[in-house]
């Protein structure tokens, strides 16, 4: 099945099973804004807990804050967002659709990469175990031809971005013959810049209102609170400040479901270090963060680093962690060495001294910063994309059947345990309720008595529930139940008294954190 078809099924699945809904759907929706349903919010909260605890609990020198969404407008002048927070946009005159010029070119690069990979896949099937991929890539003429096209386009694209040459971006689109996905035409407008910040007014009267912005990132809330946290927490460099919060960007090209939205949530940590040590810390956090992703067990090959060709105005090093989504490798997290730009700018614009007195050196300085920034919504999409599976299984009558299962890491699963009475009589529902009452303070449990036991299993598989417990007549006699494991569909007979320990061992964050050492 084509990856595009799988992604469409995933989006439909997220709605059907209470993960993600289109915002304001009864009013035909609001573009690029989504609501999280009853299962989605649980998964989202579990992802946030995994990040927060791995940052704040596992690092003695990292603390958290929660800053306001509304901030003084001068903050965004100091940070450069008022003048430089732009996307290069281009319109197709025939379809009237608007696109990001850089994204169109990146997709063209991905096409060349896909052509190379297809050649490799065909050769691998043909030659089997004797296939040498490195040698094939270095000698095959079709691969080399596409590699040359990729290299030339990549260099040209990088040069245009670094020079902010909008005319060259349009020329690249024309030279590559990139067409509008809707109209199929190459009738493009010029490329122009578009500021992404939402603005509003704060005040009781129109004349006295102050123009403020919905924050486009959470990082600045950390920077303007640097002194408050450092002094009240008696923090010594190096130390970090973590935050989870909403951010807002007026994305013109918002697509691929929740991958790019206008209202989204970020998990960011700013790590303050002594000038001159920032690149060492940058390398350390780069490895720490990729290990955090890989600990979830989605396959190391599905992650890669993308080193930035064009650095932001504040950075001296930047790398993205990319995950292989159904629509290709895309960024889920950025690690940036931001130098002392942010604190120096706020020191300049506020007129307040924002420095750290280093007792070892006996001098004050503006700290440098290493940032890790991850989108909660992209992380959510990564988790559900990697977990969605369609499997062919044998039904009870011996025929082939397809089950849809969300193989979520048990620690992240929205529902940990479903308890099901075999029939709705003979005291079995009461016994099932008794089990839930005993476990509901430890795990998110669900009671399910509707339909046959097989249909109930399928329903819980589709939600991603790792454990199903069936209460039958034997349970009343010997206090045992059948526990079914989602991924293998195997079943065990266990004592009701042992359920808590069996489940706790599999859904504990401790087990996940042990992989991060």
From TrEMBL:
Molecular function as annotated in GO: ATP binding; bis(5'-nucleosyl)-tetraphosphatase (asymmetrical) activity; glycine-tRNA ligase activity
Binding residue positions for substrate: 100, 217, 264-268, 371-375
Subcellular location: Cytoplasm
Superkingdom of source: Bacteria
Record-linked CDD domains: GlyRS-like_core, GlyRS_anticodon
Chief site of localization: cytoplasm
One GO term (biological process): glycyl-tRNA aminoacylation
The protein's Enzyme Commission number: 6.1.1.14
Domain Aminoacyl-transfer RNA synthetases class-II family profile, residue spans: 197-414
Gene Ontology cellular component annotations, sorted alphabetically: cytoplasm; extracellular exosome; microvesicle
Keywords: Aminoacyl-tRNA synthetase, ATP-binding, Cytoplasm, Ligase, Nucleotide-binding, Protein biosynthesis
Entry-linked NCBIfam families: glyS_dimeric, PRK04173.1
Subunit (UniProt): Homodimer.
Similarity comment: Belongs to the class-II aminoacyl-tRNA synthetase family.
Annotated protein name in UniProt: Glycine--tRNA ligase
Organism: Mangrovibacterium diazotrophicum
Name of the gene: glyQS
């Amino acid at each position: 099945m084509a990856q595009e078809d799988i992604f469409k099924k995933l989006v439909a699945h997220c709605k059907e099973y209470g993960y993600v809904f289109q915002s304001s759907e009864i009013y035909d929706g609001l573009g690029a804004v989504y609501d999280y349903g009853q299962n989605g919010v649980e998964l989202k909260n579990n992802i946030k807990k995994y990040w927060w605890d791995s940052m704040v609990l596992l690092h003695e020198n990292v603390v958290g804050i929660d800053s306001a969404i509304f901030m003084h407008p001068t903050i965004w002048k100091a940070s450069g967002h008022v003048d430089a927070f732009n996307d290069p946009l281009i319109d197709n005159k025939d379809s009237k659709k608007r696109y990001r010029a850089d994204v169109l070119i990146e997709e063209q690069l991905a096409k060349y990469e896909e052509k190379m990979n297809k050649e490799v896949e065909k050769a691998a099937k043909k030659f089997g175990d004797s296939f040498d991929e490195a040698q094939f890539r270095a000698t095959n003429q079709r691969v080399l031809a596409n590699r040359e096209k990729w290299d030339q386009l990549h260099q040209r694209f990088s040069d245009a971005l670094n020079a902010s040459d909008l005319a060259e971006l349009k020329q690249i689109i024309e030279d590559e013959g990139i067409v509008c996905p809707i109209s199929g035409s190459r009738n493009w407008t010029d490329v122009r810049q578009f500021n992404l910040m939402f603005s509003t007014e704060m005040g009781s009267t129109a004349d006295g209102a102050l123009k403020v912005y919905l924050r486009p990132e959470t990082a600045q809330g950390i920077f303007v609170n640097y002194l408050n946290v450092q002094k009240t927490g008696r923090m010594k460099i190096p130390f970090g400040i973590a935050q989870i919060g909403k951010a807002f960007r007026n994305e013109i090209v918002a697509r691929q479901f929740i991958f790019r939205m206008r209202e989204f949530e970020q998990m960011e940590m700013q790590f303050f270090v002594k000038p001159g040590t920032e690149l060492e810390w940058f390398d350390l956090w780069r490895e720490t963060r990729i290990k955090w992703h890989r600990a979830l067990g989605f396959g190391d090959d599905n992650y890669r680093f993308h080193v930035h060709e064009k650095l932001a105005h504040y950075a001296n090093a930047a790398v993205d962690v990319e995950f292989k989504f159904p629509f290709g490798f895309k960024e889920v997290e950025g690690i940036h060495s931001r130098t002392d730009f942010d604190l120096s700018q706020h020191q300049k614009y506020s007129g307040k001294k924002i420095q750290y007195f280093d007792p070892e050196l006996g001098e004050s300085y503006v700290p440098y910063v290493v940032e890790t920034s991850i989108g909660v919504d992209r992380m959510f999409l990564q988790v559900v994309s990697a977990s969605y599976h369609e499997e062919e299984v044998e039904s009870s009558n011996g025929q082939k059947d397809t089950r849809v299962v969300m193989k979520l890491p048990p620690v992240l699963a929205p529902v940990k345990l479903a308890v099901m009475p075999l029939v709705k009589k003979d005291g079995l529902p009461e016994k099932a309720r008794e089990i839930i009452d005993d476990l509901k303070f430890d795990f998110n449990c669900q009671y399910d008595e509707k339909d046959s036991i097989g249909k109930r299993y399928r329903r819980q598989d589709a939600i991603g529930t790792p454990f199903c417990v069936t209460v039958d007549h034997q349970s009343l006699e010997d206090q045992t139940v059948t526990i079914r494991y989602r991924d293998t569909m195997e079943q065990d007979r266990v004592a009701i008294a042992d359920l808590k320990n069996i489940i706790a061992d599999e859904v504990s964050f401790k087990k996940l954190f042990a992989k991060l050492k």
